[in-house]
Amino acid sequence: MNEGTSKGVLIGLALLVANAWAQYLLWFGEQGLIRWRHTEKELMAVRAEVGEVENRIHELKEEIRLLEKDPSAVEGVARRDLGLVYPDEIIFILPN
């Protein structure tokens, strides 16, 4: 084997190793495609959760508005959440 051929083989081998390393980093590295896809899924889940929380905030603000404006809404919450009744009312508990 002459010197030119062995240099070509070494350069080819070095390029092959560099390409293999670059592929490894591309797919499995800290910022690789697999990590990116995982992060993208996490982002979608967090965005969905944020949407749910924003909806709940909107519902609570609406309930606050109703409680400030409508006295019967306060009574409804007291009955529903606290189980309050008037003294002359009779409660019937039915089995399911």
From TrEMBL:
The protein's gene is named ftsB
Which keywords does this Swiss-Prot/TrEMBL entry list?
Cell cycle, Cell division, Cell membrane, Coiled coil, Membrane, Transmembrane, Transmembrane helix
| GO terms (BP aspect) | cell division
Listed name of the protein: Cell division protein FtsB
Annotated organism of origin: Candidatus Magnetaquiglobus chichijimensis
Pfam families for the chain:
DivIC (PF04977)
- Mind telling me which PANTHER family this protein's record contains? CELL DIVISION PROTEIN FTSB
The residues forming a coiled coil are 43-70
InterPro entries hit by this protein: Cell_div_FtsB, FtsL/DivIC
